[in-house]
Amino acid sequence: MNSAAPLPTGPLLQTKDVDVVRDGRYLLRAVSLTIEPGEHWAVLGANGAGKSTLLSLLGAVSHPTRGEVHVLGRRLGSVDLRELRSYLGHVNPRHPLQSPLTVREIVLTGLTNSIEPPMRWLPTDAQLAHAQRLIDTLGITARADDPWTTLSQGERGRALIARALMPEPRLLLLDEPATGLDLTAREQLLASLDDLRRHHPDLASVLVTHHLEELPASTTHALLLRDGECVGIGPVDEIVTTDLVSACFDHPIRITREDGRWSARAATRTPATAG
After folding, report:
1. Which of 107, 129, 238, 248 could connect to 224 by a Cys-Cys bridge, CB 3.0–4.6 Å?
2. Is pLDDT above 70 for 7?
3. What is the CA radius of gyration of the chain?
4. Domain count of the chain?
5. pLDDT of residue 119
6. Rounded Cα–Cα distance for residues 113 and 164 (Å)
7. Band of residue 275 on the pLDDT scale cut at 50, 70, 90
8. pTM of the model
9. Does residue 14 surpass a pLDDT of 50?
10. pLDDT at position 34, please?
């Protein structure tokens, strides 16, 4: 679907010693990250840790104060951001749609990068078929012709992921996609993400959250942020550990993993022994 010129091979995303400073305050400090095709990253940290700031850089929405950001081989500041964004699928759970478009119509707006379908624009048969495949993959086939206003929050989230995938991006950015979902809707969303990753092995993704229970089992890597600084980065089994997550959240937290999924529980602090 993406008709722009082919981009260089290699890492999809790289940040090199990135600082972001606003009003004299560091939102990110010396963050370096490399994301390869097929990798699925989790960015974890408490509220205010810098997660959304980092996602804005990765999505070519903002620029760093210092350091370099390379998106699909192109350095921010030396390339047309509109071209770059056509290769990135950014899922915004606060999608500002007001009209009762159907799920299919919403998914198709991923091709036009608009909230509403442009006037007199009609999708091709191939585009309609592509939209239907994504709707099927995300598990919302039964709702394809239903209006947005009747969807649950979980169904809306899966529709927005399908929308983001319409231009066949190389990278999918997910900003707390499970926010506001009940248990069933969250599990359906995470199962859909696991299925999606199996069907699209070259797709990479970055999922931002502060809840370990919201990580799909297919997560491959993790970055832990605390006060804008990297606490840990690398393969998920080496990073999502009791010690590193406790340091990230500045609180003793016990991490367990079962059937590929993580859970976190506050650990009891050991009282200091009197001298």
Report:
1. 248
2. no
3. 19
4. 1
5. 86
6. 9
7. very low
8. 0.85
9. yes
10. 96
Task: Dig out the tokens for 66 from the structure.
Answer: 């210092």
Chain centre distance of CA 255: 22
Q: Is residue 151 part of a domain?
A: yes
Domain that holds residue 146: 95-167
The pLDDT score that the predictor gives to residue 4 is: 45
Task: Tell me the sheet residues that pair with 208.
Answer: 43, 175
Residue type, 18: V
Place of tokens 């989230």: 157
Q: Is residue 19 part of a domain?
A: no
For residue 269, what pLDDT is reported? Answer: 61
For residues 75, 76, 80, 81, the Cα torsion angle rounded to the nearest 10 degrees is 130
Written in H, E and C, the secondary structure of the chain is CCCCCCCCCCCCEEEEEEEEEECCEEEEEEEEEEECCCCEEEEECCCCCCHHHHHHHHCCCCCCCEEEEEECCEECCCCCHHHHHCCEEEECCCCCCCCCCEHHHHHHHHHHCCCCCCCCCCCCHHHHHHHHHHHHHCCCHHHCCCEHHHCCHHHHHHHHHHHHHCCCCCEEEEECCCCCCCHHHHHHHHHHHHHHHHHCCCCEEEEEECCHHHCCCCCCEEEEEECCEEEEEEEHHHHCCHHHHHHHHCCCEEEEEECCEEEEEECCCCCCCCC
What pLDDT is stored for residue 78 in this prediction? 73
